[in-house]
Amino acid sequence: MLEFVGNCNDILDWNTIIKEVQDQEGKCACKYLPVKDVPELKEIDDALSTIGSYNRESIEWINYYPGKEFSMEIAEKFGEFVGAPRMIKSWISKIYPGKTAPWHWDWDVDWKKYTEQGNPVRFTAMINEPAPGHVFIVGDEALYNQKQGDVHKWPDFKSYHGGTNCGLVPKFNFNYLAYSE
Length: 181
Known about the structure:
With 181 residues, the chain is α+β, with helices and mostly antiparallel strands.
């Protein structure tokens, strides 16, 4: 179950941060995954294939990274806010109107190493102003019309999740993975 942590709008100006990244190219994360070579990813891809009618053209999300497209200071302030300053990685994700991030978990080539070095915890902040059509799902919980800056802690950093934007403006989330201790 997702755990509501609080609202971080008092420490981070998300509107300014969104303006900083929104026109940058970023990285279309779904196009760089080794889907056919990694069993965990192949399993997800095979599940989409069995559906038959999933519109693969709709799959697209763009990631922006600290130290590249936005300041590392943002991730550091966020880590202090959630009480987990030992960051593993963080990123801002953007989903354009009409696009989706289908049901998946965030596979990473180093995910096993993370568990050997500590207890990874995952947080997501809703960084847009609430907008119709912006949906984010983790496990069996859907987040919709959340306040800008609302932060949730995930039950497991490998939780299955998905997002969609059936609205009219791009949807942005801030994602943060760190060690709990």
